[in-house]
Amino acid sequence: MDxxxxxxxxxxxxxxxxxxxxxxxxxxxxxxxxxxxxxxxxMAVALLLxxxxxxxxxxxxxxxSGIYFGGLFGDSTMAILLNTPxxxxxxxxxxxxxxxxxNGRAPQALATAAIxxxxxxxxxxxxxxxxxxxxxxxxxxxxPAEFFALALFAFVAxxxxxTDSAIKGLLALVLGLAIAVIGIDGVSGAPRFTLGSPLLFxxxxxxxxxxxxxxxxxxxxxxxxxxxxxxxxxxxxxxxxWLSGKEFREALPAWLRGTAIGLPFGxxxxxxxxxxxxxxxxxxxxxxxxxxxxxxGTGAIRGLAAPEAAGNSTTGxxxxxLLALGLPISATAAVILAAFRMFGLQPGPLxxxxxxxxxxxxxxxxxxxxxxxxxxxxxxxxxxxxxxxxPKPYLYAGITMFCGLGIYASSSSIADLIVLLVxxxxxxxxxxxxxxxxxxxxxxxxxxxxxxxxxxxxxxxxGDASVLVSSPIAIGLYVVxxxxxGLTIRAKLAGRAGARA
Amino acid sequence: xxxxxxxxxxxxxxRAPIHLLRELTMPIVLVAVIIYLVYGLVTMTVPGxxxxxxxxxxxxxxxIAMTILVILQTITAVRDWRSGDLxxxxxxxxxxxxxxxxxxxxxxxxxxxxxxxxxxxSFLAFAVTLEILGWIIAAALLFWGVARGFGSRTPLxxxxxxxxxxxxxxIGFDMLLGLSLPSGILGWGF
Lengths: 501, 190
Description:
Chain A has 501 residues and is mostly helical. Chain A is 73% helix and 1% strand. Chain B has 190 residues and is mostly helical. Chain B has two domains: 2-102; 113-187, no CATH class. Helix content of chain B is 63%, strand content 0%. Chain B has eight helices and no strands. Chain B is flat and about 55 Å long. Chains A and B meet through helix 5, helix 7, strand 2, helix 8 and helix 16 of A and helix 2, helix 3, helix 4, helix 6 and helix 7 of B. Chain A: The chain crosses the membrane at residues 20-39, 59-82, 109-135, 147-163, 170-191, 203-226, 321-340, 360-384, 396-429, 435-454, 466-489.
């Protein structure tokens, strides 16, 4: 197989001492940020984005994959020990995971989560290895009209499917699009919305927006609003940190089912792994109620195993969709897309042709990252949990300092620090009033693609808008969009209902 | 600590005008954005050779969409306010629905204005003084200010920890990774 040969080549790249070191550092950093209270993998990726500029692209992206998956491994620790999900995708893990911990099975719960994340991520990486080249091949037939349809797909799905209020989601989206149009117009060269200031000619940097939205805004929100909400006492894990054969056999089918549920969501821009984790949890719960001795509600190992595997398989697949189509399905994936852009790389079919070395090294690094993460999470989960003991004022003060460091180091500009603060305050307001942040980031990242492909398509047809729906692929994409919209809304309602009942 | 909460009405009184005003914060911000965009559209100098759709085309769509959405959101907010359905600050409806995960956040949490000022103020001060004071001192002050915003009341300890963290960051990122951080007044001697 072509893919296999390329992948082995990729392993050759990754297994150099230096690159291996970056994967391991990325895994450590990602897990550390993921474990810390209230910080999820999107924050990990945003915070560390500016720091990777000092590296060469392959090393930086390899480190990123470690951070990306590490954040997910870390998230579940919080959910299990504190009953506080780091981000939406680990809510489903709190239900049975925390109960297991309460019953004195915290180490087993942590092990279940780590192995689940490993299985989900591994299987997803295998699927991506074979699917991504095929997807890239397929998308190489895309013209401007198809790319516009794809961007529109991502816009509509992220802003209306995952959010409670479609109006708020769409408002966040158009705000992101508005930020993206600031600067020199790439087609005509006209400066737009710059007030004549050269500072704005390059537009507002994606890095500044991401760090402001996902990190600084979160700090302000935590300090001003959420700090007043009391958290539960942390449960100290005690006892054997491994699973008995019986427990393993019990959890195995749930891991596999969870993975299967998570995979398709990796290519659908429906906000990432929140929906599949709930679906996986709901499915296990339904299966459990048919057993003679239902265990849900008392710390069922399957109720934790399935969502963990589902979350990571979605995340793994998402990297495939990002690499092959340039389509980010969640805020975290959008940040990684931004990282590619910073290095002058555009994910999509051309990347497979132009930089196969980088693509395959990155894919190989997924596998390496999974193994490293399992190795540092399974035996040492209790050590990681110690990070939960950092006093909150110092934790958030440190994060704020890091935001400043990243932005100043990447631009050496005081103006960018002020922009960062303004965006942080905006993110704080959005969080406070329940406006989702993900659509803004997706809008900001995909806005230029949407605009230029729209104008490109229409200009080549002398301003005729019907060109947008003239190709079978574009029409197909719009049909799939409608279908997915219908299905995910239904699935989401069912998943929520299942989790609540 | 409770004295630092902003004096707001009781939770039951959800029809006080302040609730509507707060809910309209984002729409007001967005109206400002719309005005900025319209001003930019009107004053934009478009090169004569630009073919349709030109540089104004996409922003125009954004302005129209944003205007419609802001109007819809305002109507929704007013309607919710009239019927007393507005969600309290910090109350996450979504999370509340997931089992009893979040304990009545709305009643115990309020906008903590002094915290807000401390965090934003320290960051602003950091941005303005960074190149004069240098990274190590400015970042340590930022650390202290944010820690204070988070309720820490041990300034000396906070400053010492802040200095330690900022120095480690300086060593790690400036000296080892080669990112450029300003040395400021500490750099004069070197």
